[in-house]
Amino acid sequence: MALRSDWSTATCPIAHSADVLADPWVLLILRELFSGRSGFDELRAATGAADSVLARRLKQMIASGLITKAEGYSLTDAGCRTLPILHAYARFTEAVDPGDRWGLTVTCGRCGATAESADWCPACNAPLDAESTRWARRSMGDAPFPLIRAKA
Predict the structure, then answer these.
(1) Own/partner pairs for 20-27, CB < 8 Å, 24+ apart?
(2) How far is CA 71 from the centre of its chain?
(3) 5-40 pLDDT, tens digit each
(4) Residue from 71, 118, 69 nearest 93 by CA
(5) How far apart are the first and last CA of the chain?
């Protein structure tokens, strides 16, 4: 039995997007795919999801057009468009926890400036996308690394 309403046919773009993205497991899987993890076992270890939960979410994400599966799971162009949403979550965490004990720093890969918004570099005055963004995560050693782009 579903734990929430089905908004897949909603005419409101926010409700429709929530139908696809408002699951915490989906957000964590997206985070790991952007971080370069693509195998089922890697995703399970990084997210802590049970096999059945992860398999169900990956299947839903494929059906929604966020990811594809070939040798591993990879982001589609639609999946890459979720990047500002993940950045907004990270920025929100800083707002409610000023010590930012989880630590995700978003920087521009073009100029190195730290991003203060979810989707725009303040120094370059250009959009942050998967090609131009670097993350530094405390859980991954604090060294900035490029994100994974959608496979053509």
Answers:
(1) 20/64, 20/66, 21/82, 21/85, 23/57, 23/60, 25/49, 25/53, 25/54, 25/57, 26/57, 26/60, 26/61, 26/66, 27/85, 27/86, 27/89
(2) 20
(3) 666 666 788 887 888 888 999 999 999 999 889 999
(4) 118
(5) 36
Distance between CA 35 and CA 40 in Å, rounded? 14
CA distances from 16 to 11, 41, 66 (A): 7, 30, 14
- The tokens describing 137, both together, are 């995560």
Q: pLDDT tens-digit profile of 108-141?
A: 888 988 887 778 898 999 988 888 888 887 666 6
Cα–Cα distance between 1 and 18 in angstroms, integer?
18
pTM over 0.85: no
CB 132 within 8 A of CB 109: yes
Please give the DSSP secondary-structure letter assigned to residue 110: T
Q: What would the two tokens of residue 103 be?
A: 């630590």
